[in-house]
ABC transporter
Amino acid sequence: MTIEFNNVTPAPLAGVISSTTDIWQCTCAFEAAKRYRVVAPSGKGKSTFIHYIYGLRFDFTGKVRLNGVESSHFHANEWAEIRQDKISIVYQDLRLFLQLTALQNIQVKSALYPGNFDDRIHAMAEALQVSHLLNNKAHTLSYGERQRIAIIRSLIQPFEWILLDEPFSHLDLENSKRAATLIDSAVRERNAGLIVTSLGQDNQFNYDKEYQL
């Protein structure tokens, strides 16, 4: 799946977009199975950019296309299929269900697919050193622990792209490396594409291209 932005202007940023951006009010493409880093300071629209790809927001002029089809043309059931099989995401605000356990938050996603995911979930939790927290309610976890649970949830599903919105913002260097290694393995296994938004301070992946937002 190729992702294209053509002269996109977010409504909240109209009139205040920097001339140095590579994405807003420009033409750019994200090619299948490639790795991209999108860098910007806070408040410049990194989450907005991710939400446009994922079909959560359409408050823009211009065109966002997935495999040549304008994102606004997909119906709700088509977006459901895209999010279930084509595009996975780690939100900046994580969007965990705080009243559920860490494990239940992952199972909310794994329940959509046939098969038993228990061994895989526990292996990933062990790799990210959160296996002892799986039965704890999400609201009792630190933000960094929640971040690792959200990463595991994103890797459970099949995907052609994974969107990571500042995925290591609350992780120290060692935990960031562990998470990046796990993500890298999942991306290679699926021959998938990767888009990471960043303040520019991390370099956990070998990127094919960097865009300034």
User: Anything to note?
Assistant: Strands lie at 3-10, 27-30, 35-39, 60-66, 69-70, 87-90, 161-165, 193-198, 209-212. The two ends are 22 Å apart (CA to CA). The chain has one domain: 3-212. The helical segments are 46-54, 76-85, 102-110, 118-127, 143-156, 173-190.
